[in-house]
């Protein structure tokens, strides 16, 4: 039988006071495995939320990088073969740089 949200709030309070999982299960009238799995599920949910929050900020892109990106987007391939074969655009080849 799964735990209700009210039972979980009680279990969390008891656990924070140092009560063991078996004692919590006995008090709430559920199996120890039910209590343990609910704690694990809540922990993984919280970790997932924390990871999402940490990954949320967008990277900062400098003006120079934006200019280079726009220059690459507006550049045309040298010829049809360069476009098909994926040759670097004019001015962007490593061989053309000093």
Number of helices: 5
Largest sheet: none
As residue ranges, the low-confidence spans are none
Order of helices and strands: HHHHH
Strands, count: 0
Roughly how many Å is the radius of gyration?
29 Å
Into which percentage range does the β-strand content fall?
under 5%
> How much helix, percentage-wise, in residues?
55-70%
Q: Judging from the principal axes of the Cα atoms, what is the shape?
A: rod-shaped
Report the mean per-residue pLDDT as an integer.
82
How far apart are the termini? 71 Å
Task: Please sum up the structure shown.
The chain has five helices and no strands.
What's the SSE blueprint?
Elements: H1 5-16, H2 21-28, H3 32-55, H4 63-74, H5 80-85
Helix pairs in contact: 1-2, 2-3
Describe this structure as you would to a colleague.
Helix 1 packs antiparallel against helix 2 (21-28) and helix 2 packs across helix 3 (32-55). With 98 residues, the chain is mainly alpha-helical. The mean pLDDT is 82. The chain is built from 5 helices and no strands. The protein starts with a helix and ends in a 13-residue tail after the last helix.
Key structural traits:
0% strand; rod-shaped; 98 residues; mainly alpha; 5 helices
